[in-house]
Amino acid sequence: MQTIQLEHLFKQQHHQTILKDLTLTIQAQSKIGIQMSHVEATTLFKLLLQMLPQTSGVITGITPDHIQAILHNDGLYPQLTIMSYLKSFCRLSDFATNLDDLLQFFALKDVARVKIKHLSADQQQRLALLRAFILHPDLLLIESPLTNLTNAGIELYLSALAYTRTHSITVLLTSYSLEELVLTSKTIYRYHSNTGLELTDLATENEADNSDPTPSTPRPIFKVATKVDDKTVFFSPNEIDFIESVNGVSQLNVSGEQFISPQTMNELEQQLTTLGFFRCHRSYLVNLQQIAELISYSRNSYTLILKSHSKIPLSRSKLVNLKALINF
Predict the structure, then answer these.
(1) Is 283 in contact with 247 (CB distance < 8 Å)?
(2) What is the pLDDT of residues 34-88, one digit of tens each?
(3) N or C: less crowded end of the chain, CB within 10 Å?
(4) Can you list the positions of beta strands (E) in 195-300?
(5) Where would I find the HTH LytTR-type domain in this sequence (predicted)?
């Protein structure tokens, strides 16, 4: 795939600015995720497919015939069976691989003769992915693929997505959920309507990297300081649900609100470890008392669900330490 470059992309529609100052490089085999709304994602996809002209900015390297998109509300043909539906796309693309073998990799073999209207949401998402696989684009754009899926459905979709990527298909995903992007992408951006794309600290960690020094014995503290305008606001550790590093800035999450701390994640980890906090991911410190569930989507993907219903990633390398701390 040729490298695609978006430079200072700007799109206005119906007197509203949808995208502003969006700059992005999409290289072959990159695993990019972007946190953005449905309207923003749809507009971006249409620009890449050249279904819409940009208001300003430059897009280079685009070959629309080699790009496919799967939107969250994509329609299928409900009266067709999976097999008859897929065969029509095989004819369009001169696809030669045996469909029976392929259905196995997308966990759809047992429902191959079932009408699409009778499929679950989990199965329909995998069917949309398989349809795109058959068309074999250089670049596949997917919006919110894991939204509303069951835990088993997420695990099966992630497996099918990994299989898709092994066949030289570059996948760019968008979602409003950061958790979804952590599970599906390696390089994660947030889109801000005023400033464009912002690279996050949520890239997949190198699990083999043991270079981080062991933190020294933490000293007790009773309050964590944050800055709000010209004020300093203090929180007791038990009030904090979790702490997230956002582009190198520590952000306390307290009852659904975010507060900026002047301290680094390493400093906060040293101070809060003895007060019930755990570094579950390079970018997250979690209050152990707030953990309600642990979900495993695959051998390499773990998510913590908190009492507040927030979802945060757990690194595979941290799982053993967490088990020792909370005895499970």
Answers:
(1) no
(2) 999 999 999 999 999 999 999 999 999 988 889 999 987 777 888 999 999 999 8
(3) C
(4) 196-199, 224-228, 231-235, 242-246, 249-254, 257-261, 277-281, 284-287, 291-298
(5) 228-328
**Residue 244 exposed, middle or buried by CB count within 10 Å (0-12, 13-18, 19+):** buried
User: Where are any strands of DSSP class E within 14-110?
Assistant: 16-26, 31-35, 56-60, 67-70
| Confidence check: pLDDT of 249 > 80 | yes
Q: Which of 303, 278, 312, 307 is nearest to 291 (CA)?
A: 307
Residues of the chain with CATH 3.40.50.300: 4-199
CB atoms within 10 A of CB 137: 20
CATH number of the domain located at residue range(s) 224-326 in this protein: 2.40.50.1020
pLDDT tens for each residue of 285-306? 999 999 999 998 877 788 999 9
What number does CATH give the domain 4-199? Answer: 3.40.50.300
- Residue 4: CB partners within 8 Å, gap ≥ 6? 25, 26, 48, 59, 60, 61, 62, 139
Q: From CA 147, how far away is CA 149, in angstroms rounded? A: 6
Question: How many helices and strands in the chain, by DSSP H and E?
Answer: 8, 19
Domain with CATH 2.40.50.1020 in the chain: 224-326
d(CA 157, CA 127): 10
Distance of alpha carbon 296 from the chain centroid: 15
